[in-house]
Write a structure and sequence with these properties.
There is one protein chain. The chain has 270 residues and is an alpha/beta fold. The chain has one domain: Uracil-DNA glycosylase-like domain (Uracil-DNA Glycosylase, subunit E, 3-Layer(aba) Sandwich), CATH 3.40.470.10. Helix content is 40%, strand content 11%. It has ten helices and seven strands. A seven-stranded mixed beta sheet has the order 1-6-7-5-3-4-2, with helices on both faces. Helix 1 runs antiparallel to helix 5. The longest helix is centred in the last third of the chain and has 29 residues. It is globular. About 16% of the residues have low confidence.
């Protein structure tokens, strides 16, 4: 049994999906149709608290090699993003949270994965992407050649857990948006994966069924964005694993195209 087959068996996908798809993906052959890009105009944002402004995504600056969970992404202000999130009271969620969680992973990651909000378990333990949902996400990433937290970065649309794990509201998302945009600005990922319809609706401001948003590449400030199923929903509906796996294959395709384009630009400039 080779590694690819073992990963698919662990996900419960073998032999539902073809190993040929994984082999072609990893070897970079063009086995799939060119992703359909949809342009999304980002909404205007409020300035970051403490008088700091959001940097444009294409800002040129040296990026930190790795971000430890307790450090968070650094800003140009005197406070780290972690410190500002911990002191944030922009919405009512700060009054009921156990912890406020910013992202975790490699600050030079090509992959940025955005979940809805911390789960009850993540909020309790102050840890990002843990439990059964975190394991499912790690397995899906492994199945397309990525390793959770090593070449990926995981964060939340809303940094505080809503009571009873309800979906965050539009007002809560907007109140927390500048924290997320600051993470994106510093990370400069090559592909963004949105976990679930709620995240896609609030992040992209598109009110469409999940089925209509999948297998499309949305453009957010020059970065390809892919929508897939929320991991909690995937645990409740294991029959959807194969489709989620194909969503991650599609995201890897976007990443590969971005990497090839950057390499081509570098060659042209030398």
């Amino acid at each position: 049994m080779n590694r690819d087959e073992a990963l698919l068996r662990e996900l419960g996908l073998w032999p539902t999906v073809s190993l040929l798809e994984t082999k072609i993906l990893i070897e970079g052959q063009d086995a799939f149709a060119r992703p359909h890009a949809v342009k999304v105009t980002p909404p205007s944002t409020q300035p970051v608290s403490h008088g700091q402004s959001i940097k444009p995504l294409d800002a040129k600056e040296e990026r930190v090699k790795e971000t430890k969970p307790e450090e968070s992404v650094k800003s140009t202000g005197q406070l780290t993003l972690q410190e500002r999130v911990l002191s944030c009271a922009a919405c009512a969620l700060h009054a009921t949270r156990q912890h406020a969680l910013v992202g975790k992973g490699n600050a030079q990651a090509d992959w940025l994965v955005i979940a809805e909000s911390p789960s009850t378990e993540e909020d309790l333990h102050n840890q990002v992407a843990i439990g059964s949902a975190g394991e499912m996400l790690a397995n899906l990433l492994n199945a397309v050649g990525a390793t959770a937290f090593e070449n990926t970065y995981h964060t939340y649309l809303v940094k505080c857990r809503p009571v009873h794990n309800r979906p965050p509201s539009q007002e809560e998302s907007r109140a927390c948006r500048h924290h997320l945009l600051e993470e994106i600005s510093h990370l400069q990922p090559k592909v963004i994966v949105l976990l679930g319809r709620t995240v896609a609706k609030l992040f992209l401001e598109l009110d469409l069924p999940l089925t209509q948003m999948r297998q499309k590449s949305y453009d957010f400030r020059g970065v390809g964005v892919v929508v897939t199923q929320d991991m909690g929903a995937l645990l409740r509906q294991p029959s959807e694993k194969a489709q989620a796996w194909r969503d991650f294959i599609f995201a890897k395709k976007i990443l590969n195209q971005c990497t090839q384009r950057v390499g081509s630009d570098d060659t042209t400039n030398t």
